[in-house]
């Protein structure tokens, strides 16, 4: 027997409590599709808080999504620090030339003041509008780039990895500056009305660095940052591998971890069941070419691997669905969740 339908917030809180809600929650993390819905260019869309709020509300209604997503684009954070941002007509904005050119520049770097930053203020305004228009039934997900991952945009990827070996003292000083900013930025979003924080930390992934490097540079730092964030936190490694880090992430205080399509979702669920919830793991790159039948099959595979017993939110594995993914595919994903994601997932036992 199916239970009475829950609100999105009730659904998410139930699954984070490792119990089965009415259906598997869906986090369809579309950041750019709202612009198309409103008939706007991406440049105009992200220039106005009211456009982003409206786009997110329309996307949630259209696809029966279980969250509103406050991510504009990742490079927005480095933009707030005074860094260059390159806008695009068909994809997310990217960081331009690194803002830190010499190791010594890290000694005098100062973080932006969240309360006086125009670009950060635009995000906060969008969150306030989403909260005012959605009341408390819909989770709003704020976003911060983890202190360990922000230097990719501040220094450039190659330079960052080089200085991690050659100047670890200065890198750790930069990470501490970033940590103070991350805490302030996360808590400002929560104060504005965000329900939880997505803590993007792709450099922590074992796709990028070893577990030993993660433990040396990031683990204690993230544990301290997450402890000072005044709301729930989910760690996201943006499609990178993280199987060896699941216990480490749990120790930081993260309630959920977003996982990669490149790892065994069922095995990961088994490893953390009852301790940490999982988000994942639809392939956002392949999603651009999926037929409706392939979208449904991918949804079913993820639900079968991790849906039983709660503790699972269906999402893409990168945290940002490409602008090129067609609406028909997004709708097919949504419809598949409505059809196959209703608890209890009896069909899983029948098909296995």
Automatic annotation (TrEMBL):
One Pfam family per UniProt: URO-D
Location of the Uroporphyrinogen decarboxylase (URO-D) domain: 8-340
Gene3D superfamilies: 3.20.20.210
PANTHER family: METHYLCOBAMIDE:COM METHYLTRANSFERASE MTBA (PTHR47099:SF1)
Protein name: Uroporphyrinogen decarboxylase family protein
């Amino acid at each position: 027997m199916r239970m009475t339908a829950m609100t999105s917030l009730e659904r998410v809180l139930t699954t984070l409590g490792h119990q089965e809600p009415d259906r598997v929650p869906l986090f369809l993390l579309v950041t750019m599709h709202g612009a198309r819905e409103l008939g706007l260019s991406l440049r105009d869309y992200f220039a106005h808080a009211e456009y982003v709020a409206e786009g997110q509300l329309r996307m949630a209604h259209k696809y029966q999504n279980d969250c509103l997503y406050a991510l504009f684009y990742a490079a927005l954070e480095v933009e707030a620090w005074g860094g260059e941002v390159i806008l695009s007509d068909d994809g997310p904005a990217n960081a331009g030339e690194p803002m830190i050119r010499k190791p010594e520049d890290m000694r005098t770097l100062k973080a932006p003041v969240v309360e006086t930053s125009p670009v950060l203020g635009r995000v906060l305004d969008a969150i306030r509008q989403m909260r005012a228009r959605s009341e408390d039934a819909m989770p709003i997900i704020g976003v911060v780039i983890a202190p360990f991952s922000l230097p990719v945009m501040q220094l450039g990827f190659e330079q960052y990895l080089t200085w991690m070996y050659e100047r670890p003292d200065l890198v750790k000083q930069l990470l501490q500056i970033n940590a103070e900013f991350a805490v302030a930025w996360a808590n400002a979003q929560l104060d504005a009305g965000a329900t939880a924080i997505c803590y993007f930390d792709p450099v922590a992934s074992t796709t990028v660095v070893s577990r030993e490097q993660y433990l040396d540079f990031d683990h204690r730092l993230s544990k301290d940052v997450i402890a000072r964030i005044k709301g729930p936190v989910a760690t996201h490694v943006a499609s990178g591998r993280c199987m060896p880090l699941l216990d480490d992430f749990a120790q930081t205080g993260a309630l959920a971890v977003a996982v990669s399509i490149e790892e065994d979702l069922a095995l990961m669920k088994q490893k953390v069941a009852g301790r940490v919830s999982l988000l994942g793991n639809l392939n956002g790159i392949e999603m651009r070419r999926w037929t409706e039948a392939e979208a449904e099959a991918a949804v079913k595979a993820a639900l079968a691997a991790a849906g039983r017993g709660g503790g699972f939110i269906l999402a893409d594995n990168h945290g940002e669905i490409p602008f090129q993914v067609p609406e028909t595919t997004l709708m097919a994903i949504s419809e598949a969740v409505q059809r196959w994601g209703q608890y209890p997932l009896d069909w899983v036992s029948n098909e296995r």
